[in-house]
Amino acid sequence: MTAVARPRYRRRIVTSDDGTTQDAATDDAVRLAVMRMFVDEARPPAPNELASIVGMTQAEVEASLRRLADAHVIVLAPGTPLVWMANPFSALPTPFEVRSGDRRWWGNCIWDALGVLATIGSDGEVRTSCPDCGEPLRLEVRDGEIGGDTAVVHYSTPAAQWWDDIGST
Hints:
Elements: E1 13-15, E2 21-23, H1 24-41, H2 47-54, H3 58-70, E3 75-76, E4 83-86, E5 89-90, E6 96-100, E7 103-107, H4 110-120, E8 124-129, E9 136-142, E10 145-148
Antiparallel strand pairs: 1-2, 3-4, 4-5, 6-7, 6-8, 8-9, 9-10
Helix pairs in contact: 1-3, 2-3
């Protein structure tokens, strides 16, 4: 793997409607670094890695991660500053395995798994199983078209309630 020099980001402070300030450039840089590592290495960076990548202190990065989590941009592992989910990617194996060539990622649900292939801009497949009978299911994406096994997608939790308990949705 070749190291790539990352630019330092200028800071821009924005004030939200409730009067709190946020460092938008910091949050943008942290989010982009998280997504880049998910795409390139199929895992999120740890806070100390992020600090090195974006040229900030670990405390600044952890504050940014908390802001991103509060804004539902990412999900942190409970009680930690570690990225668990950055949709469509999951840091942990799930029932939705995504493959493209010899590379592998995990989606949080079938929608996210297909979103992984859209995010990386590549053909590939999603492997999962029927939650009712356990039969293996495989979807393919080729030239932007979905094929493979025929199945019905059912979300038992309405989308408006997903963030009530995003880890189990």
